[in-house]
Structures are given as structure tokens and as C-alpha cells.
Amino acid sequence: MVEKSLNVFPIVISASALLALPLMNMSSTTIIDLPIFILIGFSAQLIDGAIGMAYGVLSNSILLAMGVSPALSSYSIHTAEIFTTLASGAAHLRLRNVDKKLLKKLVVPGIIGGALGACLLSSAPIYPIKIVVSIYLLIMGLIILIKARRTATRSLLKPHHISLLGGFGGLMDAIGGGGWGPIVAGTLIAGGNNPRLTIGSVNLAEFFVTIIQALTFTAFLKTMAWEIVVGLAIGGLIAAPLAAYICKRLPTRILMMIVGSLIILLGVKNICTTFIESPLF
Q1: Is the predicted pLDDT of residue 185 greater than 60, yes or no?
Q2: What is the pTM of this model?
Q3: DSSP codes, 35-56
């Protein structure tokens, strides 16, 4: 019991720190803020490593609540994720956690959906898209809460459904700054697919999808907040081995409920803040 409590301690501290960050307004970031972004990347990766999802969703929720624009937030997150997904995907491939057939069905549709989502987000007006993204993140929080309570599985998805799922996951991942894990891996596992092979395949596919998303954002956006990218990447890489060590000992269901609740609260805050800041009011 004591050992489990000690393993939960880093997660609790990280989640508590994240709750304070949205109180800050960081519409313009500087290199001085680098430790804050390292904390976000560390905390998000620590949680993602424990439940297999929520790195992008949680990071985007925090960045939006801190005043970063949706396009810049998603751009920064996916650029940082190139490094974290490469490390994760390579590890799964080395441990033979990858189903190559499933990987092929996800990669191409995911890339197409991710590129399309990045194009839409880059050219969309800020205020409406912030509302849409905040509602999407709120829904993701609800999905995580539901998955924390659901244990039953259903029949396996058909091959063409898997391709459609990959395309939809890539699209919403780009627009929402995250969601590939909850949408794709969550749906496949709930559909009766092998959890180990599903998580490994989805993680490796995400690396290729993330590269295209980042390149698409680069083509459309003229600015890049490198302090956010570097901070998220450093924090994620530091947390990765720690997350791998403690994930087997964490009360996953309780953690998912905490993360889902946090994302919902941030989504509500982002919606309220966006309405207040809207030129229409």
C-alpha cells in the first residue's frame, strides 16, 4: 500500500501544479517561461505513460487556458510529439508490440486526416475555433471518464472501419491539439482488439501522423513558439522512463477519472474565457 502511494505521488504533484497554470495569461511567450512548458510536458507525458492517452489533449487544454492560440498550441504540441512518439514507437517496435497490418490501416488515413485538420485549423478564425476545440476537449474529458468506468468489450471493428477511424482520429487530433490516443486506441480496445498490440501500433502510427501535421502547420503558420516546443519535448523525454516504471503500479481507473475531470474543468474554463474575450461581447 505504501509503495502504491509513493508511485501515485509524482502524478498528484504534477496534476496539482497543472491546476495553477491556467491562472496565468501567456498570450505571448518568452524563453523565461521554458520551465513552465517543461512542467506541462513532464506532467502530460507522465499521465500519458500511465493510461496510454491524454498527452496532447491535456497539454492543449492547459495551453489554451493560458492564452495560447489554438493553431499555435496544436503546432507546438505536434512538433514536440515528433520526439516523444518516435521514442515511444521505437520502444514498442523493439518489444514486438506492433501489429503491422493494423499499423498500415492507420498510417495513411491518419496522415490524410491529420494534414486536413492542420489546414483547417491554420486558416480558421481564432474565436470560433477556440469554442469548437474547447468543446471537443470537453468531450474528450467525458470519454476518458467513461473509459475509466467501462470494462466490457464489443466485437472487433471491420478493416474499412479501422481506416475511417484512423482518418477521423488524425483530423480531430490536429484540430484539437490531441486526441489520437483516446479516439483511435480507445475505440480499438473497446472494440475487442488486443490492448498491447493496439497501443503499440497506434503509438508508432502517431509518429508518422505527427510529422505530417507538423509539416502542414509549418507551411501555413509563419511563427513558431520554440520555447513551447522545446519545453514540452524536454519534459516529455524526462518523464517517459519514469512513466514506464510507475505505470504498472498506478490505480489507472482513478487516475483516468482525475485526468478526465481536469480536462472537463479546463474545457469549461476555456469556453467561458473565449466568450468573454470575443469581439461580439
Answers
A1: yes
A2: 0.76
A3: HHHHHHHHHHHHHHHHHS--HH
